[in-house]
Amino acid sequence: MRVSLMSRRLFAMGWGMVVSGVSLMGVAGVHGADPWLEVKGGEGPGKGKRVVLISGDEEYRSEEALPQLAKILAHRHGFDCRVVFAIDAETGEIDPDNQGNIPGLEALADADLMVIATRFRKLPSEQMEHIDAYLRSGRPVVGLRTATHAFNGIGDKAFAHYNNGYGGEKEAWKGGFGRLVLGEMWISHHGHHGRESTRGLLAAAAKNHPILRGIADGDIWGPSDVYGVRLPLPGDSTPLVLGQVLAGMTPDAEPVDGPKNEPMMPVAWVKTYQIDDGPEGRVFTTTMGAATDLVAEGSRRMVVNACYWAVGLEDAIPEKTDVAVVGTYEPTAFGFKGAKKGLTPADYAGE
């Protein structure tokens, strides 16, 4: 099935954004027989690197965003990618409302990068074991949007510290996965959800950071709102992009007056993390990253550049990274109960 047929435009909220790229028809290495999507990398700096992209949220359509991101990483930059999804075990269909099943996480065992965009998942222990082992190895993480509150409701004591807002006996894990690994947990909607969009402005001290190569003020934009974070961010967190709250849902909307932009919240930053006494790992976090945010070329460039940086390829980031979409990308508007029905990972293998 064509992505263009699976995706409805954003007319419901007045956006109507469509991005077209090149066809995937006949491209070798895109497979969909399993309850995940494998996208084989072509030539590029990422050749030989393996990325696992974890979708699973009820609101921001990570099941649409991450297949497109994987195709860009694979076909433009050479990375081998696996996208995993929240799956209904009985039907094999993608079901973002199913919080307890993301098959295919065993691929993390030999992954070079984990990209995560989940929300309030309560995965079984046999699936959490793969994520836990990955993090204990100190390998890099890219977290998108709701990954700050990636897990919740996990009952097994062995993994309960991953829950958003964890307040148990493991002092280092206060706040859960989001706080320890990504730098923040769920705090608040800082912008007015659904009414105030986000324009990315480069943090003055970070304009020369390799993740921001080829990106200018305003290139990063998304209809999702700015999330609140606690300032300053913890540890060695370094803000890269500040989120200017806009009084409207278009890139040319005016900034809102008042305290929402004084100061502006960071919407992208880098840091390191460490589990117990294990090795340190690189982290890039952005509270942007809804499927609709990736319509903006600058938003896609930021995330792709972050993947390069995370795996230590920052010197290979071009002056302007190629982030043209692969196939046709018409993301569904964010919102609860808005996910497309009846799709399997194989439906994202075509154009």
Describe this structure as you would to a colleague.
With 351 residues, the protein is α/β, with parallel strands linked by helices. It has one domain. Helices cover 15% and strands 19% of the residues. The chain has helices at residues 3-6, 62-77, 125-136, 177-182, 297-310, and strands spanning 19-20, 30-31, 36-39, 50-56, 80-84, 113-118, 141-144, 188-189, 198-202, 221-222, 227-228, 238-245, 265-273, 281-286, 328-329. The strands form three sheets. The protein has an eleven-stranded mixed β-sheet. Strand 13 (265-273) and strand 14 (281-286) form a beta hairpin. The longest helix is centred in the N-terminal third of the chain and has 16 residues, at 62-77. The chain starts with a helix and ends in a 22-residue tail after the last strand.
TL;DR of this structure?
15% of the residues lie in helices and 19% in strands. The protein has helices at 3-6, 62-77, 125-136, 177-182, 297-310, and strands at 19-20, 30-31, 36-39, 50-56, 80-84, 113-118, 141-144, 188-189, 198-202, 221-222, 227-228, 238-245, 265-273, 281-286, 328-329. The strands form three sheets. An eleven-stranded mixed beta sheet has the order 2-3-5-4-6-7-14-13-12-9-10. Strands 1-15 form a two-stranded antiparallel ribbon.
Strands, count: 15
Radius of gyration: 18 Å
**Based on helices, strands and strand pairing, what is the structural class?**
alpha/beta
User: Which ranges are low-confidence, i.e. pLDDT below 50, for 5 or more consecutive residues?
Assistant: 1-32
Helix content: 10-25%
Numbering strands along the chain, what is their spatial order in the largest sheet?
A: 2-3-5-4-6-7-14-13-12-9-10
What is the helix tally? 5
Note the beta-strand portion: 15-25%
Apparent shape: globular
Q: Main beta sheet: strand number and arrangement?
A: 11 strands, mixed
First-residue to last-residue Cα separation: 8 Å
Q: How many independent structural domains? A: 1
Q: What string gives the helices and strands in order?
A: HEEEEHEEHEHEEEEEEEHE
Mean pLDDT level: 92
